[in-house]
Each structure stands twice: as structure tokens, then as C-alpha cells.
Amino acid sequence: MHQRAFVFGGSEGIGLAVATQLVAAGTQVVVLSRSQAKLDAALAQLGPGAIALSVDVTDASTTTAVVDALVAEFGVPDLVVTTAGYARPGYLEDLPDEDVAGMVATNLVGTINVCRAVLPHLRKAGTGTIVTTSSMAGLAGVFGYTVYSATKFGVIGFSEALRREVRPYGIDVRVLCPPNTLTPGFDEENRYKPAEVLAAEESVATLTPEQVASALVRALRRRRGFLVVPRGSRLAAAAIRYAPSVVDRALRRPS
What we know:
7-stranded parallel beta sheet; globular
């Protein structure tokens, strides 16, 4: 069992579900998110085993300052989970400039900022696990998700390189790759998805945040494996790896 965890993006969705399961297991949890209102609601749900703090992970210096202050007050976390991110689907030429920059800043650079902030403390402690969040769209590019897929592919590449870099310090790095998950962000995505994407997703399984969080918690107990893929998506992950031409036909835009 983990004694202390920092969960970035922990005010709703998968992050909140992870925080909830950790608190139930007796872990002291700090949830971090940009929205103070969402943090207040999360804290009311999580109860006395959690602490909430506002931070914008796209701001590197602020993220580092917040982490340093938390470590000084509560100690070094032995688990850091970062789920902060969002998707704005749409055809590439239609994507607003602010969402192109926003997804890169939040999904990829935000992940890097969190890892840079916590790494000196974990290295000094000589232990700890970092969990970043990619997506099934980080394993196979999905049309309508060009920029989102790029950021999530980037998270996997960054995490793989970081894992090899920090392993000598006793630090483990995992990547969570959830499929479509019923979060508030997913509801927002559906407002912008191209019609072909919505039609294709009718046959795709959608998980709850609690199911994804359970898959992650189980994987952390096993202490093995780099990519954490919920059970229902493992067949798709295997197809992406071993039958790429089949996956390409399934995921390409209909002509």
C-alpha cells in the first residue's frame, strides 16, 4: 500500500476515481487541479483522508513551487499520478489554435512539468512510482484526434525514456492507457466529434472512471509492466502491436 500520493488532475474523472480508491486503501492523498470549485467538490467526496490544492501544470515554475511546498509540509510521495489533460476532437484544419496549443501544453508539457517537479524529491528518497496518463489514442492514431493523439504518443515516448533514466534511482514509471471513459471531459468531447468518429465509437466499449482506476491500482500492486491497459482494451492493444494493417483499416476515415 502506498503511504502518500499526489494526484494531479484529481478533481474529477479518472484522477478522482484513483484518489478515491487510494483514500479507501488508507493512503494520504493530495489532489491537485486548476479549478478550486472542482477541488472543493472532490474534497467533500474524498473526506478527511485527502488534501486539495490548486495548480496549473502548464506553469512549470508554479508546479515546482507547489510540489516543493507540499513535500516540505507532508513529506515525499511514494506515488505520483498525473491525469491532467483534455481532448478537443475535430478535423485538423478546423481545430482552434488555442486548443492545438492547449492540448500540447496540458497533455504533454504538463506531464513533463509534473515529472520535473517531483523527480528531485523521489530521487533523494531513492524510491517512488510515477504514473503518467496516455490513451489508447496514444497507441494508435485516430482520425479526428490528430493533435490529441500526437500529445498522447508523446507521453508514452517521454515516459519510456524517463523510465530508463530513473530506474537506477529506484524509481518506477508507468503509463496508463485508458480507452473511452465516461468522464465530464468525454461528454465535452462528444460535442465536437466528427460524425464518422461518433458512428465508429458505437461499437467501442466505454469504461467508467472507477473501472480504469481499479485497473491501475491492480497494476501497481503487481509492480510490473510499463503500459497499464484496462482488461477490456488489451485485445485492441495487442492488435495495434501485432496486426497494424487491420487496425489501420478499422481506424481510417471512411472514403
